[in-house]
Amino acid sequence: MTHVKLSMAQALNQALRDAMRADDTVLMFGEDVGALGGVFRVTDGLTAEFGESRCFDTPLAESGIVGTAIGMAMNGMRPVVEMQFDAFGYPAFEQVVSHVAKMRNRTRGKITLPMVIRMPYAGGIGGVEHHCDSSEAYYAHTPGLTVVAPSTVADAYWLMRRAIEFPDPVIFLEPKKLYWAKEEIDLGTPEPGIGKAVVRREGADATLIAYGPTVPVALEAAEAAAAEGRSVGVVDLRSIVPFDDETVCAAVRSTGRAVVVAEASGFASVSSEIVARVTERCFHSLAAPIRRVTGFDIPFPPPHLERHQLPSVDRILDAVDDLQWEDS
Amino acid sequence: MSTVEERLLPSAEPVRLIDEHGAAHPHTSYQLPSAETLTDGYAQLVKGRRLNDQASALVRQGRLAVYPSSHGQEACQVAATMVIEERDWLFPTYRDTVSIVSRGVDPIETLTLLRGDWHSGYDPHERNVAPQSTPLATQLLHAVGVAHAARLKGEDTVVMALVGDGGTSEGDFHEALNFAAVWQAPVVFFIQNNEYAISVPLAKQTAAPSLAHKGIGYGVPGERADGNDLAGLLAVLGTAVERARAGEGPQLVEAHTYRVQAHTNADDATRYRDDAEVTPWLERDPIKRLDAYLSGAGLLDDARRAAALAEADRVAEYTRVGLMEDVQPDPAELFQHLYTVQTPQLREQAAFLADELAREEA
């Protein structure tokens, strides 16, 4: 039976499990990923099924986790490592930028690093300081990395399978607030591969461009807009790097209006890159400047103020209303 | 009975089997390597010295952008390579050109990085030599990963991971020792303590009694050797490799040596040290020392000395001629090696540059 109802965390767990069954060079390691099954239970039961040589706890040191994963990938393994929380990933940043991203380039393709760095990502769970960050721009800005973020349960499964099979290193951003969202999915029908955006909702009047945790919010906003008589489509990037200009631009050209929705601070961000790219390519199709709904340019707020940072349905609808409609 | 602490503690004095006058010094724990190993080692030292000096000359002639010489440290360079097998791995830093060439990598490919053609000129898989690492101590973690993967695959590969005295202050040095110890990974961490991290002397780098002591906190045995005594280095490093191969886990070895030249040609060593400090180290030169021992033992005569020099000259000449050639790397390569499958964005940028170059030519 390929139809199952799973949460995103369970779908990721199933993807890791299926990947480990399919290929015995796939290894899982990080902090608390063994007996505990990860603080979000994404690696639950993997040590029990595959043993401690396939899924194991490491000393508490993120640079060590990523650095040793590089060596393991150099020596024929496909490591999948966990950073536990996005904001815990910074001690590993030098390894990611100086080595993960550059090894293939430095060696003219002689060393490839098939490895996945998993990060529970972004906000919406009321996490305390240093447990929620939107760090995608750091990784997306680093040539040599592939950066993906699922927004649906099915996509979590398929993007993870593709990421593990991918010949190059992948930064895999797992939206924390979607870990417990349940969906009936068909594991027999693959989602598109890495590098492809998908249209999650067709629209004729405006296009919302979102990724990871903002996709459900954008869909909700599109639904609300429909109730107000506006047909708003939603494009889910799925893959930030490589960026799917084709799908995004086709959607924007068909509507002439667009809003980019992202949790991260807007300044020097993935959202600003999207606006620049789409403007360069679709300028003559645009009826209004592209708007953004992003987090403020502040450190990720404490839990009681978090809702002010995260893009809301209302903010998205306001941005859509601002797209210089002739009737307004 | 030895306690855990005693097992981890380095010996009180750096291990030395041949002193600076060329006299043999018997040691209770380590044996003098065979005559054949030492004569082979001598030839490699001579070759290494010649390569160091040739590369420095090529910097003066503008053929290399920079060269961090290991002049005076050749015994460390050669020993690191001599004690490992073909299936083992070497993880070098930017100063370890001689070690890489001793491993059998083409010297021109090794120097590609410093000439400025590409970041790593050799195929790391061909001789199991990782790309030279410029970020300090980061490569030690890769070494641990390679070693752990080898163990998981059931292979008895050992990894020789090189680092300098400055590198021991970096976080990754400590993480690498800790990971290797917890995993009992077959890695020999080999510190070439040459007393300076660019301009900063060892006393400002660490307050530890020796760098070899740093293993204790991680449960990694430490040992130290006279870094200008090839015989002592071969014995200490060889023992560490044997233990690692036998499943006894990682070991830390510190070689006491000295950077007799500046950090690179871009560095002015007179700003931070006196010539008076350097002079005694010239007397402890690893080649002179081994020459004196081998001559005294009747293992080296003028003919063998001349043969070693001739081979060194041949390699230097090959390197010089190769690096005098003007090589123009293909700009299209700028985009080719980031991803196995090129992204649409890089394809566009490659086309843009190709077009720009075509217009320049027209």
From TrEMBL, chain A:
It is an enzyme of class 1 (oxidoreductase). SMART domains: Transket_pyr. SUPFAM superfamilies: Thiamin diphosphate-binding fold (THDP-binding), TK C-terminal domain-like. InterPro entries: THDP-binding, Transketo_C/PFOR_II, Transketolase-like_Pyr-bd, Transketolase_C. Keywords: Oxidoreductase, Pyruvate, Thiamine pyrophosphate. Gene3D superfamilies: 3.40.50.920, 3.40.50.970. Residues 6-181 form the Transketolase-like pyrimidine-binding domain. It comes from the Bacteria. GO terms for molecular function: magnesium ion binding; pyruvate dehydrogenase (acetyl-transferring) activity. Its EC number is 1.2.4.1. Its cofactor is thiamine diphosphate. This is Pyruvate dehydrogenase E1 component beta subunit. It comes from Kribbella italica.
TrEMBL record, chain B:
It catalyses: N(6)-[(R)-lipoyl]-L-lysyl-[protein] + 3-methyl-2-oxobutanoate + H(+) = N(6)-[(R)-S(8)-2-methylpropanoyldihydrolipoyl]-L-lysyl-[protein] + CO2. Its cofactor is thiamine diphosphate. CDD domains: TPP_E1_PDC_ADC_BCADC (cd02000). One of its GO terms (molecular function) is branched-chain 2-oxo acid dehydrogenase activity. InterPro entries: Alpha-ketoacid_DH_E1_comp (IPR050771), DH_E1 (IPR001017), THDP-binding (IPR029061). Belongs to the BCKDHA family. This is 2-oxoisovalerate dehydrogenase subunit alpha. It comes from Kribbella italica. The lineage of its organism: Bacteria, Bacillati, Actinomycetota, Actinomycetes, Propionibacteriales.
